[in-house]
Amino acid sequence: MKISVIICTYNRANMLKNCLYSLIDQTFPKRDYEIIVVDNGSTDNTKEVVLDIIKENPDTNMRYICEVSPGLSNARNRGYKEAEGEIVAYVDDDVVVSKEWLRCHYESYTEDIIGCVGGKVYVKLPENMELPEWFSGPLMLGFGSLDYGDQKMILSEDRYVVGCNFSVRKSVLMSLKGFDPNLGRRPKKMLGGEEIELQDRIRKLGFHILYNPDAFVFHYVNREKITKKYFYKTAKGYYYWSKYEKVNKNTTWEFLLLTYFKNIIFYTLSLIKNTVLRRKKHTFYAKLMIIRYFYQFLGFLRNIVLKY
Fold this sequence. Notes:
The structure is a single chain. The protein is α/β, with parallel strands linked by helices. About 40% of the residues lie in helices and about 15% in strands. The protein contains ten helices and eleven strands. Helix 1 packs parallel to helix 2 (about 45-55) and helix 9 runs antiparallel to helix 10 (about 280-305). The mean pLDDT is about 90.
């Protein structure tokens, strides 16, 4: 088996259908890839939907697996352990992949030094939906939007591919023991960053992260996510991420602490300015950034207390 596709899912049966059909309709030979659906404790009809699609497509290598341990990292780790392919590709259940997606991912591993590959992500908003007046362009990044241009490139250490569209050598995942289970989304915690932390460790092993724009996907966003409540919850999740901030000789804890304060002050001034000018988009974004850095700071203090 050349490549295994892992889709981790939780209570999104309707969106999952579109993802699976796009994976079935690939130019890549069916004998060379498998699709593994990891159900992370869904209470809807996810299992029935997947089993029906498997029955409808007997020529496709597709499996349904249930992972009872909650958390996206646990589901992703279960997926690569079950995978038979030399390359493990991850895609979200609310994504539709391009017809050449698998071929582009697999053919990106032409050199042994390539450990991880990612591609463009086009965000698709609900049909006929007008964005609220407080919504600004940078918020698209919260939906996984990614575009580094139209050329293949090895990414510098300050750039990453995103979790809804990336692949990794299985041998690399095994040597790193997969994703950190302390990171990743879970039912009552909007914590992310597991794929960023993994890419840092991949680089430390001496491998490169490759960006291939031809391996693109469409990320469909629910209306429920286009709310202030969703973005506030995501910003507060940085409380947990601060534990995994990169610290080296050029980036000390003192530098990070100063950065938190600088950003809080900067966005506070921005909030005041844009409130006076009645720029609702900029006002909300500034408020969101204040919350983010404030919770990162709280997380930083928590780590200090736990350490000493």
